[in-house]
Structure formats: C-alpha cells, structure tokens
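Is iron/sulfur cluster placement plausible here? Inputs below.
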Amino acid sequence: MTLEDGLRSLAIEEGCIRAGIARRETFSEAPPSADMRYLEPWANAVVSFAVTTGTDWIADYLGKVTRMVMRDNMHHINHEAYRIANVIANRLKEAGFKAHAIIPNGLYRPDHTFGKEIPDHDVKPPLSLRYMAVGAGVGTFGWSGNVMVPGYWSNVMLGGVLTDAMLEPDSPMEEAVCDKCLICAQVCPVEFVNKDRKEEVKVTIGGREYSYNKKHADLRCVIGCGGYTGISKNGKWSSWSTGRIILSDEDEKLPEILVQLRNDPANVATNRNLAFGKRGVLDRPRENVKVTCNNCMTVCSGPLEVRKKWMNLLFDSGVVELSSDGREVVTRLDENGKEAVIRAAQIQ
Ligand code: SF4
Ligand code: SF4
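Reply from A.M.:
I modeled the complex. Tokens:
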C-alpha cells in the first residue's frame, strides 16, 4: 500500500467520511488563505478530510427545543477533527516526514482579526480548510461557500494535516453537489449569504474555476453566529441568539457595531463565542460554546425536500428571548401581533 493510500484509509478508519490529498501548487491561483506556507514554511502537501455529526439532533436544534445539541456537537466534532489530524500527523512522522495537525477553527490572521480595537470587517484563518478540502477532492463549494460532500451535503466539518512529504495528489471533484436552492441564504438571519444568484465570486483551485455567493462582510456572520443577534428582518423567527439588533445593510458600519456589542455588559456575560485561546476552539470549555446559528450548514443536510423541511421548521419555531428572570424562552406572535411564550427552552 502506498503512503497516500495508507493515509486515506487511516482517515476513514478513524471516522472520516472522505479524505484526500492536495499539493501546494494546487493553490497557486487561489486566494491568500490557501497558502499553506503561511502556517508552515516547509509545507508541500495537505491531507484533508471531512467528518459529520449526523442529523438526529437537527429537529431539536432548528425546532428550538434545545441548543445544547449544537453545543455538544460542535465541541465534540472540533476535538474529534483535531484528534484525527494528530493520528494522521503521527503516521507521517513515523514515515520520516514533518507534519502539522491543523487546529480546525477559532484562529485568525493577526492582520485580519477582530482582536483589534476596531476589527476588520473581513477575517481570515491562517489556512482555509475549505480551500484545502476542495483542492484535495474531499468536497466542492455550495452556493453558501460551505464545502459540500456527496451524500452529506454541507453537514460536514473539515480537518487537515500539513506535511513536507511530496504526496501524490488527488483530483478535485468534478461533480456539482449544490442545486442552488438558496435556502442557505434564506435562513441566514444577518443576510451574510447573498440571495442574488448573479452576485457570485470565482475562485481558481487546481486550474478549475469555482463560483459561490459573493458574501457580505465576514463580520456579519461573526456577529450572527457569535450570538450577538439572531432576529430575522421580518421579526418572525430567530436563531438561538437572544440579541435583537437588526444589522445595517452597510458592511462598513459593522466593525463599530461589533465593538458596541462586545462592550455591552449584557453581552460580556452571555455571549462568549468569540473568546478563543491560543489553540482556537480547542481551548474553549464546552460550557462556553454558545453556537447560536450555523443555520446555513444545518439546513443543507439532505435533498431539497429535507432542506425545505428544516427551513420551514426554523421559520415556524418562533423567536428565542430572555425572560425577565434570565431564562431563554421561545415566543411567537399570536394572531393579534402579541408575543406569547410557547415554552422555556432546554438549555442544560
Ligand atoms: S442550501 Fe441549497 S443553495 Fe445552499 S449550499 Fe445547500 S444546496 Fe446549495
Ligand atoms: S452561520 Fe448563521 S449567520 Fe453565519 S452565514 Fe450561516 S446562517 Fe448566516
């Protein structure tokens, strides 16, 4: 068995749904965050892989029964991706090569970070696992910009390992997985994902051109998925965030809005999604994982009828609010436009 076959098999044995290899040259025409030498000057190749958390928790999450299913999933899957990356890295080291297990999330380039006093409205990771996965044939882009894997849609998390080994690369995937239903854009409470099919960006990886939505400023998702707001523009549905700011359409205003939100004492206590350690998400205790959205990935977890079902569940499951005694409750407007509490959300 070749080293490459052994690495792919090892990833599958460890629980990945798909794995592949890309060489540094694959990304020569790709955006800067596909430059693997930013992370390791000796990097020649990446072993990329995808894992999934399954779908049995989605009804409870989008139906606003409990957000804890997402918290537990996210915490588990990030640690699992890093565990698998280390297993693969050890195999490479045993074979005499350098290897770096990539931290799956929560680290950003210092020149593009919200760690600044006034953050940039775009943030970039040291190395984009999305680009690595597409270059290695693990998946392909959906309209959302998320990576889609055949049979799993966008319901995947990515991991990877850099190495100095000149590994034989896999080919990028030929097939399209996304059918451009745009449900990912409809379920984004902060309108980060573009709803206009004509508004797209193009990225070249491995000599192949890919396109996906021209996203609005990254801070939109940082504010939304970070838990600072989650109310839809029509006010009828929300993510799990209890924040109620409807963001300005102007991306330029977002950095200052984030600063205000971050300094708001109510948010300091309740929103901790942006608190990362030196090892990114890996240093965040499970109780501090407060993912409130992830809707774009969560709904895109099956064929069109499944995506529609999840979207409708989200739209019909009401709005999460903080009650006067500080509990998360789910409310819905009645026929007279008055808010009625449906139930207390399960948060333990
Ligand atoms: S929700 Fe629809 S448009 Fe969005 S990525 Fe999935 S399949 Fe593509
Ligand atoms: S995670 Fe939520 S806020 Fe971020 S892009 Fe997806 S749907 Fe929008």
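Short version: DSSP finds ten helices and eleven strands in the chain.
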